Give the backbone structure.
Amino acid sequence: MSIVACSRDARAPDGERPAPPVANATAPEPRVSSDDAGSAEPPATQGPVASGDAGGEPPMERVPDIEYVPTPQNVVDKMLEVAKVKKGDVLYDLGCGDGRIVVTAAKRLGIKAYGFDLDPQRIKESRENAKRAGVEHLVTFEQKDIFDVDLTPAMVVTLYLLPELNVRLIPQLEKLKPGSRVVSHDFDMAGVTYERYWTVIARDHQTPRDREHYVYLWKTPLRKK
Ligand SMILES: C[S@@+](CC[C@H](N)C(=O)[O-])C[C@H]1O[C@@H](n2cnc3c(N)ncnc32)[C@H](O)[C@@H]1O
């Protein structure tokens, strides 16, 4: 799989910039959850498959804002690389799915990492994956609405949500310490100028084909447009 770095100077006049990936049909969006989509399973080709029930977790308090779609592992790797995650950082993944970003960060970099998800099944899978990877002592998974999470302890925040959810998170992201990094898979954050974006070729979750995935990076203090 190849990784392509695309430099896009955020200070360049609008007319000189490539079309935003959000509006680009090559980046299919995970579907917004509906009542019956909240329990959707990941495709068999991607990531650990959900097991039957969520064990001891409390029931889901509301339908998630977006259904579960895992980030391909090479995109996870790129997200951690561009965020320059290093020893001593604390990483939060908002909507952590099966916990792969959190577990990868803890395993590779030995950092403390936290994942939050509304879906008890995802929290259960995340804890199982952390156990398998031997990083239970470094990671914490909480069944919690991401819009209720205090982000101030985080130095790195990772997102694979939707453009409008990224925008709704801006007030929380603005409370991050200066020098913190925010990385989003596939989706921009309207109203905030990113530092740069990259493309990574990886499998699409809906088809058995590769496609370009986008990785956006912002640094704090966020530069509002
Ligand atoms: C597209 S998946 C991304 C999973 C993981 N971050 C990754 O990149 O592999 C989005 C996840 O967000 C969760 N989610 C959606 N809305 C949420 C909310 N308001 N609070 C917490 N989790 C939410 C979903 O249950 C789902 O697992």
